[in-house]
Specification:
alpha+beta; 18 strands; Immunoglobulin-like; five-stranded mixed β-sheet
Amino acid sequence: MYNKYLGETIAFQGVAEDSNGTGLTTAVGSLVVTDYTGSSVFSGVGTHGVTGTYQHVASTNGWGTGPVDYQWTFFHSSGTNTVVVDNSILMVGTTANPASYIKLGELQSYYPLIEDYTDDVSEFHVEEAYKHINRLLDNLNYKTPIPVGPDGLYDQSLRDMNAHFAIYRIVSANEVSRVEGEEEPWYLEFRKRAMDTLKEIEDGKITFRRDISPSETGISVPVHSVGSSLGNFHNNWDRSYGQMFSGSDYPRTWVIEITGTGTSGNLAESTFRYSNDNEITWGTSTTTSGTIGTCGYDWHHFGWNVYGRFSLGSATGSQTIVATGEKWTFETKPIKGQKGGKNMMRTYW
């Protein structure tokens, strides 16, 4: 899901091709855009540009806030449906509060095969997972539901838990009960992931952004500085993990670089390295000199309470997740606080 702010101009683009992969210049690209209120904010035909590519440019002024769905439907000259493309964006900078921290359509980025299990009650499972999370957080003395953060986004820890609990519920509802004596169901792993996130919240490793502003972390949001793959890199700032930067020397520029993608190009095979001095020297995610860290989906600790992890982003199927030479950049700076009238560095707490 892409995040866009109200007032931005968005280019909705779709591609129509024949069975040989040749762009169709005479197709009709019909586009429908629906905002969070359920209102259609655009319904019409896109403009054909380069071969096979159709586009509609729209301003988001006056749109409803929250998730926005759009759908391209392409027809060629015989009137036969060629391809249907569904996607969604999130209009942020809003206090809109849907009945879940994540949408049903976003679960595919957590488990690509989830569509094999979804049905008419899947939305119900997403909402029930949301309610379950709030009950668990209530037990930790959090007031729920947790609102969006200062930037209008839900904390990623909430989105992750909602997704993992929902996937567990959806799949388990469609799987045949296991036979006594067999190993535990494979989909139980999703429930374990959700509970692991809850434990990190309980242990104070994850802090909700309503309790700490981005400027207080001393860690900026990562910028995709080199490359154009669909995968993402996340750090403390936009994943609310690890709390605040604990370094006390000077501002630093960090660079994350993909060094290899293996044979299938997935995150389990891809490797990376990092620099905390703007590429003057390079380190890895381990303490072993010369070892290149594997991207994977887990959190990596780079020191000074700086954490990072990778995700599929909007990549699905055979689309490129990350590519060799790709880079993300972010900044850190020492955070100063007042205590007892003395200027002190605020550290991990």
